[in-house]
From TrEMBL:
One of its GO terms (biological process) is methylation. InterPro entries: Methyltransf_16, SAM-dependent_MTases_sf. This is Methyltransferase like 21E, pseudo. The keyword Protease does not apply. The keyword Transport does not apply. It comes from the Eukaryota. GO terms for molecular function: protein methyltransferase activity. Keywords: Methyltransferase, S-adenosyl-L-methionine, Transferase.
Length: 231
């Protein structure tokens, strides 16, 4: 009976999350996908030839979580960085919630990322989001020096998948994270690599599963550096 109730709850919340998407009523020369978050209509331009420029369900889950947990995870005036920002949807929602946002990704994705951020946050946000290149594990001390970067939150949606840069991703998490930084990380489990990465991640971070969506095979984690607790 309890398992049935959990399944019903999962289906109900997932349905609510997926309803945040909408299809444009007018066909224009620029293809875009619509979303409703934080009382705003958000229009996202995707690039179907690139995995990093598509809105995946994990991003919707994280946006929904940020919007519905504003008391516990208050974004107002917080320094927030999103790694693997892709289309920028999560960064846009965090900006609409009042955060100082730095949206990062690979160089070839920054043009579309900047376009989406600008069209959806200009004249709507307390702090305009910034776009910055971040190749995982590359020139971290130079581009994100510890002395001048202090993030309250690190946001990540679906950054773990079948690619050869998981160690570099772990190194990037570790470099950007301070003792007080909270990581909010949403992941879709597809392959055994995801489970192995979680095991490696837990060597450096205290990891807590705070939400699960079995029908999507997605989990939402909260993490902090292990030395925070020891200190």
């Amino acid at each position: 009976m309890q398992e049935k109730r959990k399944a019903n709850d999962d289906e109900k919340v997932v349905a609510e999350i997926m309803q945040r998407c909408f299809v444009p009523t007018l066909i224009t020369t620029t293809c875009w996908e619509g979303f409703h978050f934080v009382g705003h209509e958000i229009r996202i331009t995707e690039a179907m030839d690139c995995y990093g420029a598509v809105v995946w369900p994990s991003a919707l889950v994280l946006c929904y979580f940020l919007e519905t947990n504003v008391k516990q995870y208050n974004m107002v005036d917080k320094n927030v960085i999103e790694i693997g920002a892709g289309t920028g949807l999560v960064s846009i929602v965090a900006s609409l919630l009042g955060a100082h946002v730095t949206a990062t990704d690979l160089p070839e994705l920054l043009g579309n990322l900047q376009y989406n951020l600008s069209r959806n946050t200009k004249m709507k946000c307390k702090h305009l989001p910034q776009v910055k290149e971040l190749s995982w594990g590359v020139a971290l001390d130079k581009n994100f020096p510890r002395s001048s970067n202090s993030f309250d939150y690190i946001l990540a949606a679906d950054v773990v998948y079948a690619h050869p840069f998981l160690e570099e991703l772990l190194l990037t998490f570790e470099h950007l994270c301070r003792e007080t930084t909270v990581i909010l990380w949403v992941m879709k489990f597809r392959l055994e690599k995801e489970n192995r990465f979680v095991d490696r991640f837990q060597e450096l971070f205290d990891l807590e599963e705070i939400s699960s969506f079995p029908s999507l095979n997605i989990k939402l984690f909260k993490a902090t550096k292990k030395n925070r607790r020891n200190a």
